Amino acid sequence: MIDNELIQTFLSVVEYRNMTAAAANLFTTQSNLSKQIKQLEKETGVQLLIRRKGHSEVSLTPAGEEFLKTARKWQEVMKEFDNAVNAENVTEVSIGALDRLNCFTLQDFYRKIMKEHKEIRLDCHTRHSKEIYAMMEAQKLDFGIVSALYPVFNITARIIGQERMYVVCHPDNDYGPLIRPEELDPEKEIYSRWSDEFEVWHDHLWPGRKYRMHVGTSVMAPGYLDEIGRWYLAPESSLHSLKDHYEFTFHTLSVEYPVSKLYLLEQKHVRHEKKEALEIIKNGIIETFR
User: Fold this and answer.
1) What's the confidence (pLDDT) of residue 5?
2) Are residues 252 and 270 in the same domain?
3) Does one domain contain both 172 and 218?
4) Which of 91, 144, 212, 252 could make an SS bond with 265 (beta carbons 3.0 to 4.6 A apart)?
5) Whether residues 150 and 270 fall in one domain
6) Exposure pattern of 205-225 as b/e (b: 16+ CB <10 Å)?
7) Which among 69, 56, 47, 60 is positioned nearest to 24, based on CA atoms?
8) Could you give the number of structural domains in the chain?
9) pTM above the 0.70 mark?
10) What is the pLDDT of residue 42?
C-alpha cells in the first residue's frame, strides 16, 4: 500500500507546479521532496512528473494526470475518515484567502468562530488569487476570497467589498494628508503587485520599475519601512492592523487609482451535512467585509 505521505507530497507538487514552492509549503528540503517523488514513482511503476535539470518547475506526464485523479479521491476518503474518527459532530470548513486578508481582516472573525462554534473546525490557507481558484476547482476549499474574477465551472462568485489604496510612510516625513505622485521617490518604494490593473496604473505614474524592493506579501512590507522616505502602497484591508502595531503615517494620493474588488467564491454543490456550517461561515465572511 502506498504511504499517504507520498500521496500528499505529490498533490502539493501538483498544486504548486514547482518543487521549491512545494518544499517550502511542506517544511522540507527540495532534495527530500525529490526523493519522495522518486519513491512514489517506484511504487506506482510509472513516471509521474517531468522535471528538467536545473529547473524547479514540473509538469505531469499522461500517467501523472491519471494518477492525480486517484490521488485526489484518496485524499477525500482520508479526510472523511479522519473527520469520522477524530471529530465527532465537528464539521471542517476550508477557506482560502489572500495573505493581507488572512493576516489582518479575517483574524477577529476566525477568533469568533473558534470561540462560539465548537462544532466547526477551520482549515485556513493563504494563497494568491489564481492558486485559490485552482484549489476551488480541485474542491480543496469550501470558500475562496480573491481580488480577481475568472469564469470557473461549478463555482459561484459575488462581490463582498471594495478597497481603496493608501500610501503608508515612515513616521518621520513632511507629507500632508494628500500626496502628489511626484512627491514620492520611486527608488524608495517598497512595492507589491496587487493586480494587473494596479501594475499598469502604477507603471504609468512611476515608470521604469525603480522601486527599492519588491515584496510578494503585505506582511513583509512593514519591516522595510524603517528609513525616512520609504513608502508602500497598501490596500484598505491592511490598514487596521498596521495602525495597531506600527507608528506609520497613512496618506491619500491626489490622483485616481484603481479600486480593488474582493470576491467570495463558493462551491455550487456541497454535501447536505455541511450546509449549516457553511452558511454560518458565509454569513460571517460577508458581515466582516460590510
Assistant:
1) 81
2) no
3) yes
4) 144
5) yes
6) ebeeeebbeebeebbebbeeb
7) 56
8) 3
9) no
10) 87
What angle (nearest 5°) sits at the alpha carbon of residue 286, between those of residues 281 and 290? 145
CB 258 within 8 A of CB 236: no
SS3 call for 267: strand
At 121 the pLDDT is: 92
What domain range includes position 20?
1-86
pLDDT recorded at residue 279: 96
* Inter-residue contact 74 to 5 (CB < 8 Å): no
Same domain, 247 and 126: no
Length of the chain, in residues: 290
| Cβ atoms of residues 95 and 127 within 8 Å | no
pLDDT at residue 262, as a whole number: 92
Q: Identify the pLDDT of residue 155.
A: 93
Low-confidence ranges of the chain (pLDDT < 70): 1, 54, 56, 80-88
Residue 247 and residue 274 in one domain: no
Residues 6+ apart with CB under 8 A from 118: 90
Tell me which H or E stretch contains 156.
strand 155-163
The grid cell for 166 is 493608501
In a domain, 160, yes or no: no
H/E segment holding residue 32:
helix 30-44
Q: Let me know if residue 159 belongs to a domain.
A: no
pLDDT digits (tens, 9 = 90+) for 223-239: 899 899 999 998 887 78
pLDDT at 97: 93
Strand partners, 249: 169
Residue with cell 517550502: 24
Domain-ending residue, one of 86, 114, 144: 86
